[in-house]
Write a structure and sequence with these properties.
Helix 7 links the parallel strand 2 and strand 3. Helix content is 36%, strand content 17%. By secondary structure, the protein is of the alpha/beta class. It folds into two domains: 146 residues, TPP-binding domain (Rossmann fold, 3-Layer(aba) Sandwich); 79 residues, SIR2/SIRT2 'Small Domain', CATH 3.30.1600. The protein has ten helices and nine strands. The structure holds ligand BJW. Ligand BJW binds next to helix 2 and helix 10.
Length: 250
Amino acid sequence: MEMPSALIEVVRNARRVVVLTGAGVSAESGIPTFRDAQTGLWARYDPEELASPRAFKRNPKLVWQWYQWRRDLCAGSTPNPGHFALVEMERRIPEFTLVTQNVDGLHALAGSRQLLELHGNIGRYICYDRRHPVTGWEPTDELPPRCPICHSLVRPDVVWFGEQLDAIVINRAAVAAERCDIFFSIGTSSIVYPAALLPQLALEHGAIFVEVNPNPTPLTRFADFVLQAPSGVALPALVQTVWPEVDSGS
Ligand code: BJW
């Protein structure tokens, strides 16, 4: 894949880079994006209608089962070349922060270390009423199970619509966005806030803005560079071009 020479130059010289990823980065690992049409069992449900406290209160069993299905899908998936290319970038850029909206854990599995998970992680559980971390429960036919401490319902440790993001995590991401030389927005539709504010913050502070997405988003027109391709293709190509000594098999 052809890379703009000006982009190669800025990435090679960058000292502070922030990358924001969304569901598109995991698409090539076989995990459907959030706003893809769902298939099979879940085709008739809108994810935006399931990922909310209101949905959980109305029908906790349905929401639990949807997350159980997605959790199994994530557990059976492996990182793709896009995830691994981001690990290579982290190794080569002095200050690198990877901010992800994904809850699938694939960046950590690939080896990314400077990682901020904005929307939580589907592999962890908390209870609904008191947010106690829950690591196990008594065998039961009841779904969802109940918190061993306070007996409220167990839910995934993710951020639903209308819920606050962890203040420390979003603040760290915002500070990194304000300080970076280059901000990459990769595989996200850029419509969910406050994540979608981060590239805007970076732009206001003078960063170069790069978007990697096969489809346009509301932020495409602000991008200095657009790599209109799947991230599993564009990111390894970028890394190979900027640092030709990198082993493409890693
Ligand atoms: C590829 C590809 C390939 C495909 N390679 N790319 C300001 C204005 C308007 C509304 C709000 C606002 N501030 C807050 C709100 C409300 C709300 C919000 O943003 N609503 C919008 C929908 C309008 N935000 C919130 O409620 C947030 N909380 C909050 O602000 O708290 C303060 C507050 C509280 C109360 C009242 C008011 C304020 C919380 C947001 C939490 C989002 N949670 C979810 C679910 C997480 C758990 C789970 O996974 O189940 O996070 S929703 C869902 O969207 C999920 C995702 O992380 C997130 C973003 O989606 P993403 O990753 O962009 O995926 P897609 O599917 O949309 O896009 C995929 C992209 O990939 C596409 O562009 C493809 O083209 C591309 N692609 N293949 C590269 N191979």
